[in-house]
Design a protein that fits this description.
Length: 456
């Protein structure tokens, strides 16, 4: 069936309903490839199961779509925000200090953090999105979206450094396919970028297939001993309390990031998802997905910027394509061999593809500011945007020194309230500062409503 193109402004937007199921399946695979790199990196950094991560990324995405009335084209992958929380409970993975037996306790803390989303969702439902979103005008959400892409960019560059030739091949293929490609080649550039650069990496001997050969074809994504339920056989009450108190406050940052992500998707697609299906529904979906995933030993879920980048790149916004990606993630989670194959994907391939996608996120933020006509002749708006951008990037790359006088790149600000340690990422600090300044500075010129989304 031939594809149909409708026009929004000067952009050609593809209607996935006219593409036919075979092409939609290909698009779904592309979204799955896009989320792989970051999604499997979280278990690689924490010791959690890769297969369980894939399973609950898929299930969490389907739950999110169900609660959001199937309208929001968002994929839920592993959240990086809780990495510090895991480390505070278990110790750093890969070092002698790491204690795998404490992972279920850390997961319990993350599961409780997910429940805070339900509290905010209830407040949004009770007082209305307009009341809540008055704290998140485009002068705040636009720079936050820009910052999301910019703060992620460092991880893309670090991955590219593993093999710049492989990374450049991935970038070149994505750009060429998207700019000069025809038909499906134009709208599935990520798949071609991954495959092309993967082949180059194999030729260069940069891929280790030993773990792939050793892995079984079929297996369970997780073991009962890896779930939160296992700790109640002989619970450590002190550790339970510590994990919950230590990790729950991180949800403050991730909820702010959720609003930024939904704003980014709304800006990309041209529909106001904060009003319909409603911010309370997306928060509920994200929070429940995080809680359920954590209970079964998988990382916290979050709306994924990589897939927002794919939406912007391909112009295919049909949520059914995202759900197809979720089905693939669930299916492949039952194959340890596939999980090993994904883990063997060259770091530089992930970096090259991510470099493009993260840039697309920042570009969406710029478009959000422009299309909502944020008035930067007003000093209040300039100050708010400036502090969000500088804090989100500056804090992330702050250099500190440990007792051995070794330089360490700090990923945020940590402080203690009594016996509770709280860690906030640079993005969270920037968002909080931007929200507070917008609330207290005079001269507000934005009223949330239908104008918050682009008109077709």
């Amino acid at each position: 069936m031939a594809k149909e193109k409708v026009t929004i402004g000067n952009e050609g937007i593809y209607d996935a309903r006219q593409l036919g199921m075979p092409k939609m399946i290909t698009l779904g695979l592309q979204h799955m490839f896009a989320m792989f790199g970051a999604t499997v990196l979280v278990p690689a950094l924490t010791g959690l199961s890769v297969s369980a991560t894939l399973l609950f990324a898929g299930l969490g995405t389907l739950l999110f779509h169900f609660l959001a009335k199937g309208k929001v084209p968002a994929f839920l992958g592993s959240s990086f925000a809780f990495l510090a929380g895991y480390e505070m409970i278990t110790g750093k993975y890969g070092t002698p200090d790491f204690d795998a037996s404490k992972l279920p306790y850390a997961c319990l803390g993350v599961a409780c953090a997910g429940l805070l989303y339900l509290v905010l969702a209830a407040l949004v439902k009770a007082f209305g999105a307009k009341k809540v979103m008055s704290f998140f005008p485009p002068v705040v959400t636009g720079p936050i979206i820009i910052a999301i892409g910019l703060t992620l960019s460092s991880s893309a560059i670090n991955n590219c450094k593993a093999n710049w030739l492989v990374a450049v091949v991935a970038i070149a293929i994505v750009v060429v396919c998207n700019i000069w490609g025809k038909g499906m080649i134009k709208i599935v550039p990520i798949i071609f970028g991954v495959i092309g650069s993967y082949i180059v990496a194999v030729i260069m001997g940069d891929v280790d297939f030993s773990k792939v050969m050793e892995a079984d074809w079929v297996g369970l994504p997780f073991q009962p001993s890896e779930t939160v339920f296992s700790i109640f056989k002989n619970p450590d009450a002190s550790l339970i309390v510590t994990a919950i108190i230590t990790i729950m406050p991180i949800a403050i940052a991730t909820m702010v990031e959720h609003i930024g992500d939904i704003s980014a998707i709304s800006s990309t697609v041209g529909k106001n998802y904060i009003e319909e299906p409603g911010l309370h529904r997306t928060l509920l979906g994200d929070g429940l997905a995080t809680t359920i995933a954590s209970l079964f030993g998988a990382p916290a879920n979050t709306t994924y910027g990589e897939n927002t980048g794919v939406l912007s790149l391909t112009k295919v916004y049909d949520p059914r394509v995202i759900r197809i990606a979720a089905y693939f993630a669930i299916f492949f989670s039952f194959s340890p061999k596939f999980a090993a194959l994904v883990s063997s994907m060259p770091t530089a391939t992930i970096g090259g593809v991510s470099l493009v996608l993260y840039g697309m996120i920042s570009a969406v933020g710029v478009r959000n500011v422009v299309e909502n006509k944020v008035d930067f002749t007003k000093n209040r708006n300039v100050i708010i945007a400036a502090l969000i951008l500088v804090l989100s990037i500056g804090i992330k790359f702050t250099s500190v020194y440990n007792a051995a006088d070794e330089e360490v790149i700090a990923s945020g600000i940590s402080f203690a309230i009594g016996s509770v340690n709280i860690s906030l990422s640079g993005l969270a600090v920037a968002a909080i500062v931007g929200i507070v300044l917008n609330a207290i500075l005079p001269g507000k010129d934005y009223d949330f409503g239908d104008e918050a989304a682009k008109e077709e």
